[in-house]
């Protein structure tokens, strides 16, 4: 356990959230000087504070201590090793990947996700409009997940839909066509009303 590295991690995570040492200290019920000592590597946070500190920083205790960070560096991803993890470990690694936006890793490990993990990853990717990554891993998604992609394209029409149509079933394609038809009808009605108002 490298105290200096832990301090640097805490400082980086705190700054990433836009928190001052004072804000973090206040939320944890410690002095700003205590936070400063942690970040300089002079001292470690009390074990009893670790769960609250991890929650406030949006990371795991293992990440703070450098355990997970060393074990799961992007350069070291091994899908076979990932397959051997427990479901909760897989979920924690997925959370780490999503927080760090290391999406290129997903193609290697998505086949090992539970359905809930797939939904979590897909929701994050859709929220960030990362259709390129989704296209790479779409074969890992079931109908329910593909419905999420259909909903995305209904809300945000895009030419990129062409890359996804081969993966949609007939009902999903019909939903998209109906939504496009409705938009076209609304557009025509708006144009008709504008022309009517001019006359």
Outline the secondary-structure elements.
Elements (H helix, E strand, L loop, with lengths): L2 H14 L4 H8 L3 H9 L9 H8 L3 H5 L1 H5 L7 H5 L3 H14 L5 H4 L5 H13 L3 H7 L5 H13 L14 H29 L1
Helix pairs in contact: 1-3, 2-3, 10-12, 12-13
Shape: elongated
Fraction in helix: 55-70%
Largest beta-sheet details: none
What class, by secondary structure content?
Answer: mainly alpha
Order of helices and strands: HHHHHHHHHHHHH
Distance between the termini: 79 Å
Average pLDDT number: 85
In total, the number of domains comes to 2
Q: Spans of 5+ residues with little confidence (pLDDT < 50)?
A: 68-76
Q: Count all strands and give the number.
A: 0
Number of helices: 13
What share of the residues does DSSP label as strand, in percent? under 5%
Polypeptide structure, described:
With 199 residues, the protein is mostly helical. The protein folds into two domains: 3-70, lambda repressor-like DNA-binding domains (434 Repressor (Amino-terminal Domain)); 72-198, no CATH class. 67% of the residues lie in helices and 0% in strands. The chain contains 13 helices and no strands. Helix 2 (21-28) crosses helix 3, helix 10 (115-127) runs parallel beside helix 12 (143-155) and helix 12 (143-155) packs parallel to helix 13 (170-198). The radius of gyration is 23 Å and the shape is elongated. The termini are far apart.
In short:
The protein is mostly helical and 199 residues long. It is built from 13 helices and no strands. It has two domains: 3-70, lambda repressor-like DNA-binding domains (434 Repressor (Amino-terminal Domain), Orthogonal Bundle); 72-198, no CATH class.
């Amino acid at each position: 356990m490298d105290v200096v590295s832990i301090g640097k991690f805490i400082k980086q995570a705190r700054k990433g959230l836009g928190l001052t040492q004072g804000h973090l200290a206040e939320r944890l019920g410690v002095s700003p000087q205590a936070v400063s000592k942690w970040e300089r590597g002079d001292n470690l946070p009390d074990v009893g504070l670790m769960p609250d500190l991890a929650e406030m920083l949006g990371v795991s205790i293992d990440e703070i201590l450098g355990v997970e960070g060393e074990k799961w560096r992007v350069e070291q991803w091994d899908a076979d090793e990932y397959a051997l993890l427990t479901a909760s470990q897989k979920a924690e690694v997925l959370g780490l990947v999503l927080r760090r936006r290391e999406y290129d890793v997903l193609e290697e490990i998505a086949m090992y996700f539970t359905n809930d993990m797939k939904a979590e990853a897909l929701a994050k990717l859709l929220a960030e409009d990362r259709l390129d990554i989704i296209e790479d891993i779409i074969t890992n998604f079931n109908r329910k997940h593909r419905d999420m992609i259909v909903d995305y394209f209904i809300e945000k029409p895009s030419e990129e839909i062409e890359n996804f149509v081969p993966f949609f079933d007939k009902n999903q394609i019909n939903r998209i066509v109906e939504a496009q038809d409705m938009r076209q009808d609304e557009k025509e009605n708006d144009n008709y009303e504008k022309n009517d108002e001019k006359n």
